[in-house]
Amino acid sequence: MDSAEGGSDGNSQTEQTQEPLIGGLPDDIALSCLARVPRDYHTVLKCVSRRWRGLVHSEEWHVYRRKHNLDETWIYALCRDKFERVCCYVLDPNSSRRSWKQMRGLPSRSLRRKGIGFEVLGKKLYLMGGCRWSEDATDEAYCYDASIYAWTEANPLSTARCYFACEVLNQKIYAIGGLGLNSNVPHSWDTYDPGTNNWKSYSDPNIVPEIEDSFVLDGRIYIRCGRSAVTSHVYAVVYEPSSGTWQHADADMASGWQGPAVVLDGTLYVLDESSGTRLIMWKKDIREWVPLGRLSPLLTRPPCKLVAVGKSIYVIGKGRSTVVVDVNNAGNMGGMMVSSSIPKLTSNDEILNCKCLSI
User: Fold this and answer.
1) Where in this chain does the record put each F-box domain (predicted)?
2) N or C: which end of the chain has fewer CB within 10 A?
3) How do the domains of the chain map onto residue ranges?
4) CB 90 within 8 A of CB 75
């Protein structure tokens, strides 16, 4: 009897694992149907069955949605609140409410650190490095998987560093410059390859200290520090992956890079915050900066960060005040750019960094 019952249980378990995603449909058709469910409802999908939960967590799901242009982009803002603690908020640009929601469960060891690296690779968000007044720079790294809403400890950086630039190029994370435990750190960078789950360290004397901004354009990484106290020129360098070296960026391009930058459809945009907020664009064909227009001072709260979603640039300022500019339909009325906005919040949180993650 026991033997027969054991065999029956085994058969039922086998049948359960072979149940289709949706009764009466082949799994490939079921995947096509489920993948069209908006990202905001993926949590609901995971409650239906163990198989559905495994599917939503899988790389197959992520790849299918991206391949068929079904993936949706959410914006993640790393902030510092009035208590000097790190916090993170997420915004779904497609939501009718369009409101920022706080993420819970950030790694406790990172909450008081400054100069933290913040980057997205695939469906994962990374927090790296950082320091405190009573704590030297660290090599610690943490990873947030957006498909399962969970943080885990990640492989540490090759080099302990803080106040550094982070970018993704050729499916690798670059942690560039900053400060660390020795004098070589400002002129070095680490790269993370998710395929091997390893970091590698490199150095180049041309990397600038005190990095203020960075972006990727035409397969190259650009970084800059502030204006030179002697010449008042913007100092920027560019990484050429074919040679693995850093070189001085063209002076005409660097001259207009005096605020937060973002690349949209291969075009570089910069928010000039020197007098109000003015959006300018780098025209590669004529090698000139072209003004697009000013943003209303009633809507923006500098200092701001920029991210691009679809054909729009999101200008995110103090307290997560958010202005949206559609660059293809950026009308200009009396010198002011036409834009939409998310209502101002009472918060005065400082915006440290903003990244986009698509699933």
Assistant:
1) 25-65
2) N
3) 2-67, 73-103+258-350, 105-253
4) yes
